[in-house]
Amino acid sequence: MGLCSHVVLLASYNQWMNAKLYTAAHRLAPQDLALNRGAFFGSILGTLNHIVVGDTIWLKRFAAHPTGFLALEPIRKLPYPERLDQILIADLAELTRRRKFLDQVISNWAQSLVEDDLSHVLHYTNSRGAVGRKLFASLVFQFFNHQTHHRGQATTLLHQAGQDIGITDRLALIPQLAD
Predict the structure, then answer these.
(1) Do residues 124 and 61 make contact, with C-beta atoms less than 8 angstroms apart?
(2) Ramachandran region, residue 38 (left: φ > 0; alpha: ψ -120 to 50; beta: rest)
(3) How much is the pLDDT for 62?
(4) Of the candidates 7, 12, 22, 6, which has an alpha carbon nearest to the alpha carbon of residue 173?
(5) Radius of gyration of the chain (CA)
(6) 1: pLDDT strictly greater than 80
(7) pLDDT at position 172, please?
(8) Residue 179 predicted with pLDDT over 90
(9) pLDDT tens by residue, 115-171
(10) pLDDT given for residue 143 in this prediction
């Protein structure tokens, strides 16, 4: 299994987990979603927004890859988030639509990757203005790791609010190999 196959699997896991998170979030009242629970981004809504912000920022950076990635064209049209803690969308239904849109873009993009794309060195500027120059494959895996990290926080917050989202292990999506 090449690196691109792993990226496709991570994109599938991302989509699967986000669907589970948002299903659980929709079972809560708006005031419960917005309640400051002392997390890095305050509330469940703040945490879900941060993941959308982070994904948008990274996908906009990835769109600068010399390959051009046609699958990322819809991302180029989105405004660049102003802050990492920005509440881009306060309405859960609208945030869910944005999440599904992003997840589909991520899936399409992951499926369009070829191994040579991953060996490129990407130049980008981070949110503090510092210039980064890193191997694209490492940045792609960081992108998915960032999502997983904050989804873990969201899962904990949802659990504290009485919502169990069930199995969260990527292992559930890894294909079983024949003997």
Answers:
(1) yes
(2) left
(3) 97
(4) 12
(5) 16
(6) no
(7) 78
(8) no
(9) 999 999 999 998 888 999 999 999 999 999 999 999 999 999 999 999 998 888 777
(10) 98
In this structure, what token pair is assigned to residue 153?
A: 């926080």
Q: Show the tokens assigned to 138.
A: 């490492």
Determine whether domain 3-173 maps to CATH 1.20.120.450.
Answer: yes
Average pLDDT over residues 26-55: 97
Bridge partners, 122 (sequence order): 134
One-letter amino acid of 104: Q
Q: Are 146 and 58 in contact (CB under 8 A)?
A: yes
Write down the domain spans for the chain.
Answer: 3-173
Q: d(Cα 148, Cα 161) in Å, to the nearest integer? A: 20
Structure tokens at 96: 């869910």
The pTM (predicted TM-score) of the whole model is 0.94
Q: HEC states along the chain?
A: CCHHHHHHHHHHHHHHHHHHHHHHHCCCCHHHHHCCCCECCECHHHHHHHHHHHHHHHHHHHCCCCCCCHHHHHHHCCCCCCCCCCCCCCCHHHHHHHHHHHHHHHHHHHHHCCHHHHCCEEEEECCCCCEEEEEHHHHHHHHHHHHHHHHHHHHHHHHHCCCCCCCCCHHHHCCCCCC
